[in-house]
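agent> step 3/5: call structure_predict on target 'Indole-3-glycerol phosphate synthase' (Enterocloster bolteae 90A9).
agent> reason: downstream docking stage needs a structural representation; sequence fetched in step 2, passing through unchanged.
tool.input:
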Amino acid sequence: MILDTIARSAGKRVEQRKQVKPLEQVMKEAFKCREREGIKREDIKGEDGTGGGYSFKAALSKPGVSFICEVKKASPSKGLIAPDFPYVEIARQYQEAGADAVSVLTEPEFFLGADRYLEEIHGEIDLPLLRKDFTVDEYQIYEAKVLGASSVLLICSLLDMEQLKRYMGICGRLGLSSLVEAHTDREVAMAAEAGAHIIGINNRNLGTFEVDFTNALRLRKLVDRGTIFVAESGIRTPEDIELLAENQVDAVLVGETLMRAADKRQALRELKSQIR
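tool.output (status=ok):
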């Protein structure tokens, strides 16, 4: 499976980074970042996703459909999406057009992402940032905090229940939100049992990379209305957004549709046009 290959690559990347900067050091840096937000470590209460002025959870909690807009250069299924990749400017355009949060791919081998994309975008825009990577080690969560993320992606198919709960706990102590991603009924149940505040339904099967837009609609009924529900992948038109809104979807993550648009501001405004 492609996902297994990506996960193995992520694991090797983490082990290499630990040789350069040990876990204890990146943990210390991450908690210093948290303390600079004005909240002492002992005052932090669970996974609420509050991170200074950059709360990802709060951005997705407002009425209507919230938009997480993705900065992505390539993918395993589509190859090179954006040969010209002014990533900071793209994030700025999303902010100007009304994005609620920005997702930044940092996986380097299969998505041609880089940590510096996240770090530089964090220094230039005032929106919550999701570090979009394949989290297989707690090291990556501490690293995300240091890079300026407000949220990390936790994929159910990569983790067991103990790992998921532990990683969500680390997120909470750092003031990060965790976007817990599921694709099947079983994974939705796993996310709910772990106590996820935000559950994302990936319409793309990460085993085959095939997309079924109706997957999020089908699984919506399995997620409690008190949990933020995010639809991911295969979202292309204002009519798609309207249908998701009618099914009480709280937020959407849109990547390729925006990345392929010549005018990203206009493309995002058009997607938002059907929201009442």
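agent> step 4/5: record observation. Confidence is low (pLDDT under 50) at residues 40-53.
agent> proceeding.
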